[in-house]
Amino acid sequence: MSTGNADEALKEIVELTRLYDVYGPLLSDHKKEIFESYVLDNYSLGEIAEQVSLSRQGVRDIVKRCSKELQAAEEKLGFLKKMDSITDRLEEAKEKTKDREIVDILTSVIADI
Question: Among 2, 99, 100, 102, which residue's Cβ finds the most Cβ atoms within 10 Å?
């Protein structure tokens, strides 16, 4: 695997994880279990298939469907985009102030986002 492919795969996992953090509750429990096992816990499709008594292809289809559902939710609602925008503005405000107390408060707020 080339470094470029590994970087792209990591970016995709990070993005799916962020989407899941925000929109995961929209998925059924069955889909959540499979998605978490694959994306968050890094189990193989075969390992998950064995655990949930599905075919490897069935697990792959559910992971793909979950990914599309999470991306569609972001397209409709845009919470991640809004959170990123707010974080960027808070970082900018943090850089512009010299008041240590304000910097600490902004740092705390950014950590909570």
Answer: 102
